[in-house]
Design brief:
Layout lengths: L2 H11 L1 H21 L6 H30 L1
Helix pairs in contact: 1-2, 2-3
Amino acid sequence: MKESELIESLIQVDDEFKKLYFEHRKLDDMVKDIEGKGTLSFDEELEVKKLKKIKLSLKDEMEKRLRQLKQS
């Protein structure tokens, strides 16, 4: 099973994974919106860094769940 198929199946059956996935996507959209402004203020740069750190932690948790599924 491909990883994209695993993700789709987890979204359907695992509410926690679904929450992580959509929160990650939401943060990704927020980062793109801020970065799309061009030149960022200092506060905007800090906000982008903060959002990217949160995104990374969400991605790490999703990867952990995917690994667990692949092992079982």
